């Protein structure tokens, strides 16, 4: 996959600079003090930040960012081991635009949520807003849509006429669900209910879920269809699965930041960069039907609000 062109398009259009303390000092000061010490300045266009300025920037230390190694086409490993994917390229472009270095680390989603809550990593992409996560996380502007459907083995979806979530119980199905991932309030409530919890098997990765579905250990997966089909193709299982039309969930996803290590000012800068990238044709091409629309404000140069 070639590098996304977002960077070339926007690097000459705007730059963000921060003055004040480093992220490593965030735990040592209260939020109010940090607000007084930090400032965000919008500059367009200017030359790239100097080395000295970058060292004094709020995000001069690399942000530790969780990634998935098997969430095709959004975040996955290339044959040589490099992390690639549409979300990965977007993350790299956005943080380069605001001159923030990052370190990508593959880890299971459930572990990533725990690590983020404890301040051991700084950011998790493709995250939904939940009441529990909001206790320890900040969120960026949304950057694409995420959706979940029931994925069955080929030829089996039509044998289960599901029109509501509790039909899973009526059909005596066992569905796979990746630990700690959020698939909407409808499924979340079902998964936590006394009856529903017995019909959900928790997996660690997309690959594990696909293997279990292939071998008949579960009846369906609650997952992003494009991710399942993409990973399945890479596993040599092209055409082995199909998508049930029942709409489990769909909503925008965000970058999720640890409140312990990342101040709101940095999140705001990331959000502004995301909004600008969303204006590009390349963004629309990269994300297709999952791309978020641009509100028609009548002024194409007006800030993109969500």
Report on the architecture of this protein.
Keywords: Signal. There is one protein chain. With 306 residues, the protein is an alpha+beta fold. It folds into two domains: 6-145 and 252-290, Periplasmic binding protein-like II (D-Maltodextrin-Binding Protein, domain 2); 146-250, Periplasmic binding protein-like II (D-Maltodextrin-Binding Protein, domain 2), CATH 3.40.190. 30% of the residues lie in helices and 23% in strands. The protein is built from eleven helices and 15 strands. The strands form four sheets. Strands 8, 9, 10, 11, 12, 13, 14 and 15 form an eight-stranded mixed beta sheet that branches. A three-stranded antiparallel beta sheet has the order 4-5-6. Strands 1-2 form a two-stranded antiparallel ribbon. α4 (86-97) crosses α10.
The second-level CATH architecture of the largest domain is 3-Layer(aba) Sandwich
Number of continuous helical runs: 11
Write the H/E string, N to C: HEHEHEEEEHEHEEEHEHEHEHEEHH
Largest sheet: 8 strands, mixed
CATH domain class of the largest domain: Alpha Beta
Flag low-confidence runs: 1-56, 297-303
CATH topology of the largest domain: D-Maltodextrin-Binding Protein, domain 2
Radius of gyration, in Å, reads 21 Å
